[in-house]
Fold each of these.
Amino acid sequence: MQNFIRPIAGIFFGVAAITMNAADSDSRYASWPDYQGDDLELMVDNAGTHFTLWSPEAKAAEVLLYPTDRNSAPVDTLHMTKGENGTWRASVPQKLLGKFYTFRVDAGHGFMAETPGVWAKAVGTNGRRAAIIDMSATDPEGWSNDRGPQTAAITDAVIYEMHHRDFSIHPSSGIVHKGKFLAMTENGTSNDSGAPTGLDHLRELGITHVHILPSYDYNSVDEANLPANEYNWGYDPYNYNAPEGSYSTDPSDPSVRIREMKEMVKALHDAGIGVIMDVVYNHTANNDDSNFSLTAPGYFYRHRPDGSYSDASGCGNETASERRMMSDFIVNSVKYWAKEFHIDGFRFDLMGIHDIETMNRVARELKEINPSIFVYGEGWTAGDSPLPAEQRALKENVARMTGIAVFSDDLRDAVKGHYSNAADRGFATGKPGNEETVKIGIVAATAHPQVDYSKGNNSRFAYASAPTQIINYVSCHDDLSLTDKLAASMPDASEADRQRAARLAQTIVFTSQGTPFMFAGEEVFRNKKGIHNTYRSPDSVNAIDWNLKTSNAEQFNYYRELIRLRNGHPAFRMTTAEDIARNLVFDSIASPNVISYSLKNNANGDSFKEIKIVFNGSDIPFAARIPRGEWTVIARDGQINADGLDTSRGGTVVVAPVSALILGRTR
Ligand code: CA
């Protein structure tokens, strides 16, 4: 999500102790009964249609039945009767397939506004009414045999973060279903010069997983007015368990968005690519009129002592994962997406708002469904929270979350300069003093005898217990794109020099231990017109112009080879801190903006006995001392070929300014 008020990690530790009492004002919720049944809200079976709402303090509850998704009066109202464990129930003997419903709850002050509930899995236009459909009829052909890629460790993944509209909306995409889930089902698409786009582009690039920005039903884009071409990232959740309607070809038909999202997943799976969903359980778009509030007012959120919503999300509220029914909601929701939509991973927005125990449940229960499912998130909050810092799923606490990875802001800011200070430079753009922090990224924030964490810019200790807990990146949807960051911080440099800096920056990401992550379109040097927070900017800002793939063909080729290098060499993908400490050896270098290291001992089963890597982020050539041997030159002077550009016998090898040297030898 937009992170304009993202804190430097740890900044809230000091105030957490003072605000802990805030949780006390919410202590009454501890006495609310939990409901563990799997039939919440809607169940259709041979005995009819059954509604079960959890709302322990409600005075009355009703179900309203509708013939259509909007613009119609209810055809029936069912009075719900109080059941066990805080539930309210109503049943009819018919299967109400094709009908729509809402709930209405009286929490003591008369009936509140209608809500589709918190568990609506099928919804109509703008998600205002839930739908009763035959879910099995939404499965595309071959769905029962659909499988995502089997990936032994998250460090084997190359993650490509994309927004549906960014990826396909530009005329140059050549895609028919622009801005839709179906865009990623089209084969044989190309730009104006015939270069592959869409699914074919992803295959060619070699990424292993697509990470789609929020694709549950969010609040902002008016699904009743799609010709208006509204844009939003989607960090404004409305219905957590139904797909977003504006990405479907018909938001009014509840089955269509479900079927089309499954078709997208299947097409990506058929191409060998996994699908990761960005999930935003930390806050909702609305406060008092959210589906949580209209169902069981108060319970799902944290509050300040004065009763107001606390706001660790910076978006007006924060959810309360430490409460059993909210924790269950998060766990059961991701499990639903994993089972029904075959999702291969989840990226948790502002994960630091959630409690560690819930996140560990998420990872554990997902891996029981599919061991290849990944979980990672933003290990920070955007404001203070009543949840004590030691309970938060923060970056600093990731060692207590075995199956979960966090984004490394260490490498990100050290390589390209501070994320919010546009003019600030980093290691790859000539600013000295970032070397040790880049090294923290290279070893994936694990303990290493040659890394001095006291010199870290953002982190002062080895917070990861394994490289599988770190996501390395230099840009994502947030903040300036890498292209724009380089333009802002290198205003006098040529486009060619900025592309060169981008190559060095991404070479550091893709050769580092941990999991590499990139923002869609960087491989063609896309920009966002210099705008930091483009969460609702028009397509003219956010769309990827795929003709850049032709005009920046060398840039694309560099990325493709870089990814091929990583995918072909397990030395870049070690899975334990011990392996890294043993096999990754830094050279002692006194020159600023130069880092040199080796991956030794056929690390992690690599075909290379040794890989030598030298990064030169300075503006002067660096004379590297390479041991004598029969080396394959993989990268040099802004060029790369995973199979080798050349050979070298070692000795003094000059590393040109703003470039990476990568050599490998088999003996
Ligand atoms: Ca929506």
Amino acid sequence: MNIILLGPPGAGKGTQARQLEEKYGLVQLSTGDMLRAAVRKGEPLGQEAKAIMDRGALVPDELMIRLISERIAQPDCAKGFILDGFPRTIPQAQALDKMLLNVNSKLDAVVELKVDEGKLVERVAGRFTCAKCGEGYHDRFKPTRAPGVCDQCAGTDFSRRADDNAEAMKTRLKAYRDETAPILPYYAARGVLKAVDGMAPMPDVFRALEGALGLVV
Ligand code: AMP
């Protein structure tokens, strides 16, 4: 099963994708995570993307399309994947169609996580991640059980994203409205678009997502 999760920054795409990966063995393809890894490793792609990402703008389509087409062609993606953060523009959506045709595959569902934009700055400003295992937390909504210790791996090193601040969020939300939201009618016209309330508590969002994907009855 191949799925796209859509929604503005802070909608919960990453959190939900991780859970789908864990429970159903689908591969999470987060272009944001891939870019941040390229930045950490000092790769040319990371060097090109870092300033753009820190500002909250979109990395050029051409780079993103190359990145995801190489990833999708890898064998682990054959069992199904969840795209989280791609496509973000109409040209990316069109390129994805071509890539899927090339690997003899198709999209099963596109799910929009519907959220209240006014709440997103607070959501992203409190986010932090375990540097060792990648588990995501939030100062208010999902703190670690023991202060400063990861619930999953007992790691004590955490990181915060450089673009999870009010200033970059303005640009990120504008990019979503102007460039990404037009993808919704593109998929609606094909009858694959579904919507889930992303403001509900995390476990409820996950159950609704499973329902929308026909994974539970
Ligand atoms: P994310 O982790 O999905 O919020 O992505 C973080 C940042 O990476 C975005 O604000 C963009 O600068 C960049 N990025 C990630 N995915 C894409 C994409 N598909 N197209 C353009 N830029 C992207």
